[in-house]
Amino acid sequence: MNKDVVIIRGEKVTDVSARLAGEKEIYIVHDVNVANVAASVAGALPAGVVRGITGIVTSEELKTMDTAVKLTEKFLEADLSRGALVLAIGGGITTDIAGFAASMYKRGIRWAAFPTTLLAQVDAAIGGKTGVNLRGYKNMLGAFHMPEFTFLTSTVLETLPEKELRCGLAEMLKTFLIGDADVYARAVSSGFSAKIPDGQGKNGLPSRKNAKIQDELIFRAASIKADIVCRDPLEHGERAVLNLGHTFGHAIEHCSKGEIAHGEAVGMGIILAARLSEGLGLAQKGLAAGLEKDFQRVGLETACPYGIDELAAAMKKDKKDGKLVLLKGIGQPVITTVKEDDLRKYTK
């Protein structure tokens, strides 16, 4: 597996074409909601290079092996060679499915990610984890297949709805909680929020007076994850800290039957993990309350609507072998195995 994690920053959508110079075969897979972005990218490439464009409807219910296999059939119909490159344009579901399809086709062809949601830019499209769900459980089938590069531009975030912003902000704050206490403090006080002002039709991220800070925070979050992945590409050790809030989060997603999105669930999961950290004596009292206040300030929901009995049942299906990422403090993650009695006692 290639251990390099390449992040490219651009000011506009078509800047990605410079990184694709020299490619002979490109197949574009995009979320149907960003067909305009895919068309712009395809139009900026030399004639004949784009061998096909497929739009997919994205949802956790459609994030399945069947969807991934159908993409490989499209690759076959386009007669893609082993030298081809799949360009995934969309959110985390799109990059997960397209990257997984690329990993299967002819035992693995190259792919690149062009994430168009905040969550994908700071987390899902970085690091080479690809995969699909199985019987409602998150990412149970997949492969480590590193993208050639991940292209970041804030221009595609202009019209994200609040729900998508919440998802991305939760993952961004998670990354700072495990990797940079100073940047975490800056993030929660920067004005980067999922709250869209009354009467404003779009969030207008690039036009805000602190847009430069926001762009820097996005790139910093992506860079922290990239550094961790480079040191532990196959998650044999340190990379597991990126799962802070995810074991709880995946259980919350499962219990909600898709009503609560991934990033929203991770935000709730981080608060539960902080409470558990305090209960076990790993963190000082007040950590969870402080994080909850910070999260609410930036527009995140923090209260989990499910009891520990429901969550514990779903958590037994999690693929992390019972290990949880907890916090000794901000910037101090710890990976540990927690007894079910303690789980139930401290996360009520």
What do you see in this structure?
Helix content is 43%, strand content 17%. The chain has helices at residues 16-19, 35-43, 65-77, 92-104, 118-124, 162-179, 181-188, 211-231, 246-256, 262-279, 287-297, 308-315, 340-346, and strands spanning 7-9, 26-31, 50-56, 85-90, 110-115, 129-134, 137-144, 150-152, 323-329, 332-337. It is globular and about 60 Å long. With 348 residues, it is of the alpha/beta class. The protein folds into 2 domains: 7-157, 3-Layer(aba) Sandwich (Rossmann fold); 162-346, Up-down Bundle (Dehydroquinate synthase-like, alpha domain), CATH 1.20.1090. A 4-stranded parallel β-sheet has the order 3-2-4-5, sandwiched between helices. Strands 1-8 form a two-stranded parallel ribbon. A two-stranded antiparallel sheet has the order 6-7.
CATH fold node name of the largest domain: Dehydroquinate synthase-like, alpha domain
The CATH architecture designation of the largest domain is Up-down Bundle
Q: What percent of residues are in strands?
A: 15-25%
According to CATH, the homologous superfamily of the largest domain is Dehydroquinate synthase-like - alpha domain
Q: What is the arithmetic mean of pLDDT?
A: 92
Tell me how many strands there are.
Answer: 10
H/E series: EHEHEHEHEHEEEHHHHHHHEEH
Strand order of the largest sheet: 3-2-4-5
Count of structural domains: 2
Q: What is the first-to-last residue Cα distance?
A: 41 Å
Shape: globular
Give the helix/strand class: alpha/beta
Based on CA atoms alone, the radius of gyration comes out at: 20 Å
Poorly predicted regions are: 203-209
Mind telling me the CATH class of the largest domain? Mainly Alpha
The share of residues in helices is: 40-55%
How many helical elements? 13
Largest sheet: 4 strands, parallel
